[in-house]
Amino acid sequence: MAWLDFLKNGNELSELLIEGQNPYGSQLLKQADVDQMRDHIQPTERVLAYVLGRVVLAGRGLWLLTDQQLLVSESDTGNLVHHFALKDITEAECVKGKYGYTLRVTAAGQLRSVYGASAHLAAVFYRALGQKVRCTPVFKPSALDANDVAEVVHHFSDAALRLQPVAMVNADARALIAQLAQDAASQGWLQTSEANQVRLAEAAH
Predict the structure, then answer these.
(1) Is residue 167 within 8 Å of residue 38, measured between CB atoms?
(2) Is 57 exposed, middle or buried (0-12, 13-18, 19+ CB in 10 A)?
(3) Based on the number of CB atoms within 10 Å of its own CB, is 152 exposed (0-12), middle (13-18) or buried (19 or more)?
(4) Closest C-alpha among 72, 184, 198 to residue 134
(5) CA–CA separation, 205 vs 203, rounded Å?
(6) Residues 37-56, buried b or exposed e (16+ Cβ, 10 A)?
(7) Contact status, residue 123 vs residue 51, Cβ threshold 8 Å
(8) Which residues, in sequence order, are bridge partners of residue 115?
(9) Which of 67, 118, 70, 123 is closest to 97 using CA atoms?
């Protein structure tokens, strides 16, 4: 399987090995990504963030976060999208690895992971996720500068507008994404929701 994966995705994997990071981790969504994800998002949802990376023995990975669910695509081909309601995510973590950042979530008894995510997209994605679910502190977080923030806002706003082109939340989407990015830059990657703070406090007693 690993050899077949290399034959299929050899150029990308070679660049990842040479560069030490995923050269495709900070791209805008492809039109195929938009077409794949659009029908899985309800009109009332808000698109918040996404990360692009690699999935072991599966190919390209895309995680798309809304205010209600996490959508996961784990293949370059096919239209299979895994749905995880945010209320079903029991744990999440983000660690700096050899080829970028690795994100993992446990939901409905399943463990999903994606590696090779770019630092700035992962930072804002993880902060947005941390407002909704229980997330562990980031291992080796990177600092975001003004250019990083601007790029994240552009990428995530582009995704929100393309995935929900006629939604009434479009005007609010960019402002919300911009605030998440600014907060991640100034206050750090992770913000635990008030509900999670209560659960953590209860667990400590």
Answers:
(1) no
(2) exposed
(3) buried
(4) 198
(5) 5
(6) beebbeeebbbbbbbbbbbe
(7) no
(8) 54
(9) 118
The pair of structure tokens assigned to 31 is: 């039109």
- Overall size of the chain counted in residues: 205
Residue 25's CB is within 10 A of a number of other CB atoms, namely 24
For 24, which DSSP code?
T
Residues 40, 83 contacting (CB under 8 angstroms) = yes
As a whole number of angstroms, the distance between CA 95 and CA 48 comes to 21
The 10s digit of each residue's pLDDT in 167-180 is 555 667 788 899 98
Q: Which two structure tokens, joined as six digits, stand for 48?
A: 């918040």
Listed residue (161, 94, 99) closest to 124, CA to CA: 94
Q: What is the pTM of this model?
A: 0.81
Which amino acid type is present at position 168?
M
Please give the Cα distance from 139 to 136 (Å, whole number).
9
* pLDDT, tens digit, 9 for 90 and up, residues 138-196: 877 888 999 999 999 999 999 999 998 765 556 677 888 999 899 998 888 876 554 44
